[in-house]
UniProtKB/TrEMBL annotation:
<dbReference type="GO" id="GO:0005768">
    <property type="term" value="C:endosome"/>
</dbReference>
<dbReference type="GO" id="GO:0005764">
    <property type="term" value="C:lysosome"/>
</dbReference>
<dbReference type="GO" id="GO:0005667">
    <property type="term" value="C:transcription regulator complex"/>
</dbReference>
<keyword id="KW-0325">Glycoprotein</keyword>
<keyword id="KW-0964">Secreted</keyword>
<dbReference type="GO" id="GO:0006897">
    <property type="term" value="P:endocytosis"/>
</dbReference>
<dbReference type="InterPro" id="IPR012349">
    <property type="entry name" value="Split_barrel_FMN-bd"/>
</dbReference>
<dbReference type="InterPro" id="IPR014631">
    <property type="entry name" value="CREG"/>
</dbReference>
<protein>
    <submittedName>
        <fullName>Cellular repressor of E1A stimulateds 1</fullName>
    </submittedName>
</protein>
<keyword id="KW-0732">Signal</keyword>
<dbReference type="GO" id="GO:0006914">
    <property type="term" value="P:autophagy"/>
</dbReference>
<dbReference type="GO" id="GO:0007042">
    <property type="term" value="P:lysosomal lumen acidification"/>
</dbReference>
<dbReference type="InterPro" id="IPR055343">
    <property type="entry name" value="CREG_beta-barrel"/>
</dbReference>
<dbReference type="GO" id="GO:0005615">
    <property type="term" value="C:extracellular space"/>
</dbReference>
<comment type="similarity">
    <text>Belongs to the CREG family.</text>
</comment>
<dbReference type="GO" id="GO:0006355">
    <property type="term" value="P:regulation of DNA-templated transcription"/>
</dbReference>
<feature type="signal peptide">
    <location>
        <begin position="1"/>
        <end position="31"/>
    </location>
</feature>
Length: 219
């Protein structure tokens, strides 16, 4: 049982790694976002919103970050039911025009997608440590001053109506996605947020409701 599971994990890893290695060999690094790709220009990052407006701070972090760590409940035999985090590329919209909804581009071959099939609940964390903000100010990543947010909810497939915005949001920030192998059956998904915690100052996490979060507008 364990041996078979290990074998299938190995096969899964091989299936995942082979095309990745091939594409590394075959194509020059296209990077992600960056100038000319519609991502945030790192030297022109907008200023942090006032920390007392936690909902706005949360939306700011979500739009600034183009990846995060998503925790799911593992469906692997070895660690079944245990928390399992992986890094995923994401986007809630073009720079400055995010809608707050983190979109994902997933393949059934991914461990995370497999976990989500068994249990769609997931928790996503993103931090300004992923930008120059914390380094520039000398904030340690665990310090609440190095603003980070935790979003919990369920991951659902994106429907036809929302597909165009999800695709535009992701491909603008991650142009590499267009070249990901079609054989992996990539699909658009999103985190349907139910709970939000914002760590942006001392005194414990601030609770923001999804209503407050989606209510924020940017000029
Ligand atoms: C698709 O999803 C959006 C956002 O969740 C929703 O507003 C819309 O009604 C859905 N459309 C269909 C056809 O289900
Ligand atoms: C998103 O979550 C809300 C609150 O739990 C729920 O009412 C809604 O049906 C969910 N939407 C989808 C598309 O799963
Ligand atoms: C939504 O935003 C408006 C305008 O900023 C504000 O007056 C209102 O209180 C907000 N509502 C919620 C639920 O956050």
């Amino acid at each position: 049982m364990a041996g078979r599971a290990r074998g299938s994990v190995r096969a899964l890893l091989a299936a995942l790694l082979a095309p990745a290695l091939l594409s590394l060999l075959a194509s020059p690094a296209r990077g992600r976002g960056g100038r000319g790709h519609g991502d945030w220009d790192p030297v022109k990052l907008p200023p942090l919103p006032p920390r007392e407006d936690a909902a706005r701070v949360a939306r700011f972090v979500t739009n600034l970050c183009d990846w995060g760590a998503l925790a799911t409940a593992s469906s692997l035999a070895e660690v079944r039911g245990r928390p399992f985090a992986d890094v995923l590329s994401l986007s809630d919209g073009p720079p400055g025009a995010g809608r707050g909804q983190p979109y994902l581009y997933l393949s059934p071959l991914q461990l995370t997608a497999h976990n989500l099939q068994g249990n769609p609940h997931a928790t996503l964390t993103m931090s300004l440590a992923q930008t120059d903000f914390c380094r520039k100010h000398g904030f340690d990543p665990q310090s609440p001053l190095c603003v980070h947010i935790i979003l919990s909810g369920t991951v659902t497939k994106v429907n036809e109506t929302e597909m165009d915005f999800a695709k535009h949001s992701l491909f603008t920030r991650h142009p590499d996605m267009e070249t990901w192998p079609a054989s992996h059956n990539w699909f658009f998904a999103k985190l349907n947020i139910t709970n939000i915690w914002v760590l942006d100052y001392f005194g414990g996490p601030k609770i923001v409701t999804p209503e407050e979060y989606y209510n924020v507008t940017f000029q």
